[in-house]
What we know:
Radius of gyration: 48 Å
Strand order of the largest sheet: 13-14-16-17-18-19-20-21
Amino acid sequence: MAYTESEREFNERMDARLEYLEELNRWHIFALDMVASLGELHEYSKESRKPPELFASTRQYLKGFLNFEATAFLTVDDEDSSFQVADCEPIEMKSIVQEELNEQISNGTFAWALNQNRAVVTRSETFDHTIILHVLATKSRIRGMFLGLLENRNRIVSDTHSKLLSIILQNAANVLESDELYELLNRKNQDLQEMVRERTQHIEHMSYHDALTGLPNRMLLKERLSLHIAQSRRNNQILAVMFLDLDRFNVINETMGHDFGDLLLREVAGRLSDSLRDDDTVARQGGDDFIMVLSGLQYIEDIKTIAQKILDKMSEVFIIEGKEIFIGATIGISIYPGDGDTVEALTKKADSAMYRAKEQGRNSFRLYSNEMDTRASGRLTLENALRKALEKEEFILYYQPKVDIKTGMITGMEALLRWRHTEMGLVSPAQFIPLAEETGLIVPIGEWVLHSACAQNKRWHNEGFDNLTVAVNISGRQFRHSDLLKSIDTTLTSTNLAPQFIEMELTESIAMQHAELTIKMLNEIKSKGINIAIDDFGTGYSSLSYLKRFSIDTLKIDRAFIKDIPGDADDAAIVTAVIAMSHRMNIKVVAEGVEDKEQLSFLRQYNCDLLQGYYFSPPVTVERFTEMLRSGQKMEKEQ
């Protein structure tokens, strides 16, 4: 069949048009496939969330339109921005890809490709390959790099192929970023969960443990003790509850500071834990009180042995911040089932036994007995009444004269606290002074004594007895209290009594507890013009070197050394030595507890300065002391 020229041209145009439409249709179908594949890529990455699976998935779709001999994905190092081959297929081509990568970096092509934001086609100088590079970049930062090797270096990559390649790889970058963000969020979530778990564990631990020592607290102790009671009942065994209180801890806490005291408590906790078995429990009750629970026991003697072992441990020296600290302990013990079968009963009775042990001497242990409940009840009643005594104005002062041995004249007096309760009557100082010291009530009571005694002495001065000095006892707790100097200043101001007519009496044992701190405090008191006396001298085993540094005015020889002189040669030697030593140091000497002429004669013979005692007068009321002053009562001179 012959065609005319116009027909031929028409057919040629139609053939070209058909070929164009067919090509367009092919790319249209391919584009639809690409859209679908990218969607699948997203979904797949959401499931896997791992870069290796992402690379494999991306490579699968790249094979759909370019026949790569090798493909590799490079990941960027955030620290130095270098690229490393993270994935390569086939794996045996990895060294070639790495070598080609280094070549591209050295000749600058790699750096150029970083700035193109599209697939870049280049040639290999070493191998017969066409190279396609594409940066996996997002708006936030570069995520990595794709490198593909085509089998022929002369292979032509059309713009269409390049654009489609860029679409897939750009999408891979976004997915990779999503994956990184997912991993970041996942790590943050895991960190948050771990933090919540740790915080929860910490809160649970704090709920059941003492924050300072890490020992079980009251709540956990109650649970464990309940469990121990149930086990002891089931196994027909005895159970011991030990209530331990540190001796003189308040002294250390107030003189060395609370931080120092906390360090000591931690050391005590560790020492107690080491003294017990793994199945036993040691808990901190609060302050310097600890409770120990010993289960699985058969004999009471075993409990006593353990208690003594603990006391021995507590008596050993503690080294805190380079300082040697000695501190004992007192233990009260209750035993299941004889002393009770509940947590409350056993702890309460162990507490009662501990207080009874303190009354009989510290650094000891005592088992509970029934009579302790009565004593504990009486102690609680006494404490409640003592707390109201100041408010009710139940305290009064008695005064015992100090007499010059040579002249027989009254030179001053010691103010002695007495408590006249509305129902109990006159309460012995031996009953309430230790309780006031233990509870801290001694501080406000001591302030009242200081002010009242100075005010009364000022009244006597105003009557014409203006050479009298009043001595006021300062307890250990009051001496270490931070407000003592302030209290002294307030008293001097409010009473208008000249400071040289006030004498502070401090026992030798209190002065020696922390000698360096005592020196500092005494110097401050002394700087105000107040006299200092050491009471009960001879009972506290003081160092004579410290005695010299205390800058004291008066030594009071304890009545224990006076009562048997002159008959007891040892006591006589001690008294004469103290008098001689004191006079060489320009310190006055007061003999306490002088009761007969023989004692007076001995003291006169060895030039003792002053005396107190029933030989001249017991402590008397302010009214009686005033009568003695007005009548000019004197001690007879030596015949």
